Amino acid sequence: MKIALLIQRFPGGGAESYVEEIAKRLYSKGEDVTVITSKSDHDDSQYGFRIIRLPSRFSLGEYSWWQGLDNILKKEKFDLVHTNTYGYFHSDKAAALKKKLGYKLVMTSHGFTGMDMHNLKKIGMIKKSSKFDFIRPFYDNYIGKKTLKSCDHLIALSKKDFQYYQKIGIEESKITTIMPGVKDEFFIHDDNQINGFRKKLDADPILLSVGELSWVKNHELLVKAIPYILEKKPSAKLFIMGKDGGEFGNLTTLCKKLGISEKVIFVGPKKPNEVSMYMRSANLLVHTSLAEGVSTVLLESMVSGLPFITTPAGGNEFLADQSHAGMTVSFGNEKSLSNTILVTLDDKEKMRLLSIDGINFSKNLSWNITYLSIYEIYEKLLK
Predict the structure, then answer these.
(1) pTM confidence score
(2) Residues 301, 365: contact at Cβ < 8 Å?
(3) Is residue 92 packed enough to be buried (19+ CB in 10 Å), middle (13-18) or exposed (0-12)?
(4) Where in the chain are the domains?
(5) For 215-224, how does the pLDDT look when each residue is reduced to its tens digit (9 = 90+)?
(6) In the predicted model, what is the mean pLDDT of the chain?
(7) Residue 218 contacts residue 245 (beta carbons within 8 Å)
(8) Engineered SS bond to 282: which of 58, 94, 208, 359, CB 3.0-4.6 Å?
(9) For residues 33 and 110, is the Cβ–Cβ distance under 8 A?
């Protein structure tokens, strides 16, 4: 079985981690797997599987025309191409060449972030505009839809993805809902170590936010909610974890303006075992993103027994409803967010049930199980 996994960047966030976990397991099973991605200076020597990096001819925002993708797909004669993320050149090109080159095509859209953000702009929830906004409806109605319909199989990460696939006329038999897996590190813990770490954080309650510091993740909303929380819970602290995606300076400035710099701690990016330690020490995870596929962070929090509050971004609202492990709040009101946080924290029985339901829901979300479901799709297509 010769398989190509296509992804805009590698390594990186949720979609990139998804590709890495699949590639590692394919490689360990002796399959011929190649990750095709954009050019960068990243050291790929740590990976056993092959990585092909292609330069970009030019870009329109995030949409980058890779140079040589058609030649690689033609030369390598892949049996199956699994493309990741909707709304990118590599997915559209893989769909356009599928019939000519004869490979089977699987796609995981990882939500419809661009489409969701465009809809939020239309109702005034997002003020930030782009010179490419006018292209969005044309892309979704024609190019994006054609790409999805060209696939032999579609993997939905959430009920929202599944519903959109059906809405545009995809047969149910060509869709499988498979949530992202959770890394092994989140299933392993030492209670004594966690208790010691929790004491070092020196806060009650401990609030946690995990995600790149970019405007899409909307940390500003959470930071603005902290003064209202401190009125009722003066010993509280918020720990924000993630690499800087352009908003670190703005967020630290906002904290100084609000007089809460000592109560909002930016801890930077962390390895999975460290993320797990924070999650098992915290009281509540708060995720305020404007757009998502389905957030891996929420899945990780459930494995850790950590209740969450999330916006309805992407599949996150469906996840909260399905798992009963978290609460959903609207996108843009810090007073409403602070009230939901306070009410949730004060309801000890509710917190206990959220934690138990999260643990029960996530028992089968390890990557070893998720991978087998994805591999089964590959096998069926190539019979």
Answers:
(1) 0.91
(2) no
(3) buried
(4) 2-181+366-382, 184-361
(5) 999 999 999 9
(6) 94
(7) no
(8) 208
(9) no
